[in-house]
Amino acid sequence: MSNTLFRTKNIEQSIRDTEEPEHALRKSLSALDLTVFGVGVIIGTGIFVLTGTAAKNTAGPAVSLSFVVAGIVCALAALCYAEFASTVPVAGSAYTFSYASLGEFPAWIIGWDLVLELALGTAVVAVGWSGYIHSLLDNAGWHLPAALSGRDSASGFGFDILAAALVLVLTAILVVGMKLSARVTTVIVAIKVAVVLVVIIAGAFFIHGGNYDPFVPPEQPVEAGGSLKAPLIQLIFGWAPSNFGVMGIFTAASVVFFAFIGFDVVATAAEETRVPQRDVPRGIIGSLIICTTLYVAVSIVVTGMQKYTKLSIDAPLADAFKATGHPWFAGLISFGAAVGLTTVCMILLLGQARVFFAMSRDGLLPRFFSHTHPRFRTPYRPTILLGVIIAVVAGFTSLSELAELVNIGTLFAFIVVAISVVILRRTRPDLERSFRTPLVPVVPIISVLASLWLMLNLPAETWLRFAIWMVIGFAVYFLYGRTHSRLARGEERAAAKG
Fold it and tell me: Is residue 135 situated within a structural domain?
């Protein structure tokens, strides 16, 4: 039993699978395309919202250091992702990496986790995008019927037509081809980065040095409690993270970490990259450096424009400009946020379809979904299936309470990839690695500890929901995946011949 659970997929076989005509993806992406994808998925609502929440409640002006801490945690993981993606340039990201090192059952767990993370992330972002568009339409005097704007209080029925429509349109773009997706993303990313730069440059003229005093506010310990909404570390060890003070910087890092979600999606496009050994590491690390720099700059500007105690939770940047007597920038920021969320939604959907495609190609999910489009060479079947499901979920559901599941899913993937790097270095030292994670095993171990620290700072109820999803995944694997995987079928054929 244990032998079947931890059977690994040969890396050479994984690469050969990508060359089968009916299961092959078109290689059309460059390092620039991947960097644009990374920036496109990282810069979203987080840069416009989380700064205010973390500064006002947890870190004060030192929230800029919280972004640095979160960026370092992601950078440690990025180094591990870069080695794997350049060594095993196969769709599936952490799922594929763990299949080659940890075994089939751990690979299934991480793949199942990624399906939840990326699907939920896509739906959450689509609902957020809809909110910004509703705001812009309302400002223009255009109002959608209540029943098509979400929850209709009169009848109890509501469908967010804008969120659903966004997902369906992006699904169509992804089916047509990766190069078209890259071109659309490039245009949109250019627009939203321009908006962010305008905000940084304009806001710099309204900074008042007194707003940075104190840069690290005095520590205010959080009282311990037994609620599931409390961080898990508080329930287990009785230790409550601090608001403000030096420890407040690290507590805030677990909040702003959501702003970095998505850089790992770049690794899912490795199979569609022309020179993955060179371009995937550049795309992952380059996009992370760009976004961390922008995040730190925005946080410094907004806390300098307005005292952290007065920052808005819902729209800190927009309200900071209003407080300085420049409300025009509020509309620009809303426009930039709406544009930014479009690419976030598309790239999360892209990543999920690739993970689903890779799992079906391995037989852990029905092989029906492993066929690529005869003309566009895209995984159109899982893309359409997931696009429709997510459109329905986004249309009918407000997912704000579940957003933290995206955080825990991503951090779990970080831990698995870091461990996999160490294992594969020992089991397959002969593999050609065009990019090597430095200081192995020190860097992967630090990555695991840093990710685990942020996970422990998430609410206990998030862990409970995550555990429920994993239990469902176990059932699906043992009822279907374990006996239908290509490795299982290969073993059956070998036994029959023997």
Answer: yes
